[in-house]
Amino acid sequence: MPKTVVVIGAGISGLTSAFLLSKNEIDVITIERKNSVGGSIETHIENGFLFDRGPNSALETTPVIAELIKDLKLEDELLYASKQANKRYILRNDQLHALPTSPPAFIKTKLFSGKAKFRLLAEPFIGRSKDGYYQSLADFVTRRLGKEFLDYAINPFVAGVYAGRPEELSVKSAFPKLYALEEKYGGLIVGTIRSIRERKKRAEVSKQSAKMLSFKSGMIALPEAIEKYFGNKIFLSSEVISVDRQSEGYSVSFNKDGLTKKVSCDAVLSTVPAFAAGDLFIKFDPDFKNHADSIYYPPVLVYYLVYNKKDIDQELDGFGFLIPEKENKNFLGALWSSVIFPGRTSEDKAAFTLFIGGSRFPGFVNEDRAELLKKVRTEFEALMKIKSNPVYSSDRFWEKAIPQYNLGYIEHERFFDEFEKKNPGIFISGNFRGGISVGDCIKNAELVANKIKSIINSP
Ligand SMILES: Cc1cc2nc3c(=O)[nH]c(=O)nc-3n(C[C@H](O)[C@H](O)[C@H](O)COP(=O)(O)OP(=O)(O)OC[C@H]3O[C@@H](n4cnc5c(N)ncnc54)[C@H](O)[C@@H]3O)c2cc1C
Questions:
Q1: Phi and psi (nearest 5°) for 146?
Q2: What gap in Å lies between CA 328 and CA 1, rounded to an integer?
Q3: Within this chain, do residues 306 and 394 fall inside the same structural domain, yes or no?
């Protein structure tokens, strides 16, 4: 008899594991609360404009992405970001400054003061902190690189990745590779040089050099292709309400069309967000819910704007810009969506995706939404020197957007590791373990699928 695995949640984590397990002749049933697949991946097409309301792209940091694209016959759909998208801007004093990517550009840039540049030279001589795992990203960066680098490089960067704040994020959990550079090599500059050499030997791709991709019909193409592969083995509009141990394996109960249904299985893989996992697993360990519920997911508002190109005076030659908290604006930054993936709009239009809120400004939920969008639009149009109204706009509110790997996250990581050991056959995955990016979710989905295969196939 083939073994059966129930996957809870049809976001990219659940779907990738389900697909990889199914390729290994394991019977997989995926159960999803919403009436569509993708989870945080959502593509909205209206009036000919394509608005990716969740992730706009993925970095090809794992070979599993290329395997998925090949297996699912998505090669013709694949889009790589344009070369221009390598250029990124940061706002300082209402001016967009290109992020320097070479030593001469770093010396010339006005993004950092002479003092801040000089401070970087001290980095190799700074020792490790005694705080170990309990250091915020802000403390780590200030100690190693100085305050200005924190304010004008790291603060906007983490707003772009996590919609987070460096004062709250744990350096060890949120940026494990950065932390490891200090741990392993004693410093970031020496560590970066040596790890580039080592990565070359292992033929690995770093996040900085990984290719950025999407699909012609938007990010949703990948989850939808996996859905097509499974057909009716994905139950949509089905909310899992309980997981129970049976004499052999587990049963999973879910509500569908007003009825409660139950399936039996050899293993359960949960990929639901932490705040939804607490109630499902509390009966296996009362501490589960405490850990899961204390993971913070700030709200984010995504705002999509399209303008006639002729009305924009700012040169459109990059990925977009990020805004440091010190600059006191009402949004975190903007992607220049139609520069990153040209062809998304006609030649005469330009599309932008703006992000509002996150841990920096979660209180926006109490503001009048229309007023807030107006304020953001006014700020954006002034920075981009735009002289007219948008020809199209749309927005998407995420009440609980992205898990923050905050200070003390190591306790949650250790708890979930132990929980899986104590409850063989239950696997806890999703973007609150092992990284929030689509690439990390796919990488972890493969690791989890391999773990499940080895456990359920062992005698
Ligand atoms: C606005 C935004 C922008 C982002 N931008 C980027 C980006 O540009 N690049 C990038 O790499 N990453 C980005 N991310 C992060 C990335 O998209 C997510 O971390 C990733 O898609 C999460 O996938 P997941 O499968 O782990 O979780 P989810 O996508 O959250 O999927 C979990 C699924 O579980 C389902 N579920 C919940 N409860 C139940 C239940 N009881 N029963 C059944 N199903 C249930 C949910 O409906 C959901 O479909 C962004 C995220 C957001 C929100």
A1: 100, 160
A2: 61
A3: yes
pLDDT of residue 205: 65
Is the CB of 61 within 6 Å of ligand 1? no
Co-location of 305 and 379 in the same domain: yes
| Distance from residue 125's CA to the centre of ligand 1 (Å) | 41
**356 within ligand 1 shell (Cβ under 6 A):** no
How confident is residue 319, by pLDDT bands cut at 50, 70 and 90?
very high
More reliable by pLDDT, 314 or 198: 314
Q: What pLDDT does residue 169 have? A: 97
Domain boundary among 202, 227, 242: 202
Which residue puts its alpha carbon closest to atom 53 of ligand 1?
Answer: 401
Establish whether residue 8 lines the binding site of ligand 1, counting it when its CB lies within 6 angstroms of any ligand atom. yes
Q: What dihedral angle (degrees, nearest 10) is formed by the CA atoms of 260, 265, 267, 271? A: -30
61 φ, ψ to 5°? -90, -5
**Dihedrals phi, psi of 285, to nearest 5 degrees:** -165, 115
State the pLDDT at residue 133.
84
* CA distance linking residue 249 with residue 246, whole number of Å: 5
User: Is residue 407 classed as helix, strand or coil in its secondary structure?
Assistant: coil
The verdict on 284 and 312 lying in the same domain is no
Q: Are residues 273 and 303 in the same domain?
A: no
Amino acid at position 362, single letter: P
pLDDT tens, position by position, 65-100: 999 999 999 999 999 999 999 999 999 999 999 999
Total number of domains in the chain: 3
pLDDT at 196: 79
Phi and psi based region of residue 278 (left: phi greater than 0; alpha: psi -120 to 50; beta: remaining) = alpha
Q: Which residues face 270 on adjacent strands? A: 8, 428
Type of residue found at 207:
K
Q: Is the pTM of this model over 0.85?
A: yes
pLDDT digits (tens, 9 = 90+) for 262-285: 999 999 999 999 999 999 999 999
Rounded Cα–Cα distance for residues 42 and 400 (Å):
15
Same-domain status, 391 and 414? no
The arithmetic mean of pLDDT across residues 143-148, rounded, is 96
Same domain, 273 and 355: no
Of 17, 40, 272, 300, the one to substitute when testing ligand 1's pocket (max ligand atoms within 8 A of C-beta) is: 40
The CB of 32 under 6 Å from ligand 1? The reply is yes
Q: Which of 38, 27, 88, 366 lies closest to 217 in space, CA to CA?
A: 38
